[in-house]
Amino acid sequence: MFKAELEEVGLIQDSMKTISDLISEGLFQLTEEGVRLVAADPAMVALVDFNIEKDVFESFELEKDEKVGLNLENLYSILRRANSGDTITFEVREDDSKFYITMEDSSTREFSLPILNLSEDDIPDTESLDQFKMTSNLETTVLESAIKDAMVVGDSVTVSSTGSNLRIESKGDQSNVNFNIEKGSEGVMDIEGSEASSMFSLDYLSSMVKAKKLSDNVELKLGNDFPMRLNFEVPEKARLSFVLAPRIEED
Question: CA of 159: how far to CAs of 33, 242, 244, in Å?
Fold first, then answer.
């Protein structure tokens, strides 16, 4: 049995909007520490690691750790119906195969979703990703601007660094764009590490950067022909991380 009440409607709405644009199904882990979702898209190109702290909830009742599989697109379709003044209650009832969502304010509305039988084997291991060469901390709008510039030119982008800068480059059939971010410039809190470079899909990146609604800042970790990690954090409340596999050019 699980039951939790949440008043911060925007936090869950914004998170699930961004996540559901990338991932269709996911297994939520309900523990005494809070709620966590680790899932990958069917192509195994993008991975999401989302966590809401227990203290964010007005009440949090959990008899034992549980795992709940849900269709994330359907979940967001329900959550978007919540108003800012609503209290949302999430519930798993004993011996029931549905996940209940109740919204209360001047009226009470109850929705339900079927609980899916998803395998834990499909949950990727995020702890093994430790081969990052460069870490940068930026205002999210800086990264968003670079991605939007790159999308004018092509469908992929090369992200590279010397260890003191961040370079975002896209090449099209007839035009190129180079977006260079120097350590110490406006909107850049820190860039440190060594040389790194990888190519990524702009479609995925443009979806991930929509997490700007959650956090004004983003931590970007980069390696050589290695996945990129983007961390968006709401201090003491939630953390939304994305891991994006590199695009490898064929000779």
Answer: 35, 16, 12
